[in-house]
Amino acid sequence: MGSPIEAIITGVFSGSVVATVVGAILARRTKRIEQQIRTEFDERLDVSRSTRLWKEHSVAELLGPVFLQFERTGRAFRRLVPNSVYLEAKILKDANTVIRDLLLQKTHLIPPELLDDAAKLIEHYDRWLEEFEAVRGGSEPALDQPFVFVGPKGFPFPADSEKRFKDKFQAFWRELYGAESRSIRREGTTESEPNLPRAQ
Question: How far is CA 4 from CA 14, 15, 18, in A?
Fold first, then answer.
């Protein structure tokens, strides 16, 4: 048998070797876990950034312009009086065309839950524009011509779809920019719209 000093030295040496090996294994495992966490965090951050960027584009290029065109046509309808050919031929036709074209050209920016609503709006606007062309043609509109309505012909305006688009615009706006919406009283109803910065 060896001396106690040899036993101590051997024990210390073996303990050091074991501690070094265990430490190296733990350090490698810790680095692997840190790398996995970092990778997962980066992936989630990329998804979050991508989602935010998509929502910003959706608000700026589709939902915002569609919201304002809905407002434009709503206000025009509230002013609509018999023989107001300008309102119909200019404002309603232009706004209906813009909304339909935006929905067709910016389909990648339509939130998935609004795709069915977009299809309903496109169908209504297609039919309205067809009827407008059939009634008005390329000629100057006569004051005695009736207004163009396609609701009675089976293509009523999908008001619920309009509401869902407006609601989604406001929800995205608040989520992206944190702006609270304000209520506006209109003819006995309360509608919300975002606090957009005013031009000076």
Answer: 15, 16, 21
Residue 200's pLDDT band (boundaries 50, 70, 90)?
Answer: very low
Let me know: does 136 contact 156? Beta carbons within 8 Å: no
Assessment of whether the complete model's pTM goes beyond 0.70: no
Report how far residue 83's alpha carbon sits from residue 129's, in angstroms, rounded to the nearest whole number. 19
Phi, psi of 119 (to 5 degrees): -60, -40
Q: How far is CA 200 from CA 13, 55, 177, 197, in A?
A: 79, 27, 20, 9
In this prediction, residue 193 carries a pLDDT of: 46
Overall average pLDDT of the 45-74 stretch: 89
- Whether residue 161 contacts residue 117, with contact meaning beta carbons closer than 8 Å, is answered with yes
The tokens describing 71, both together, are: 């407002």
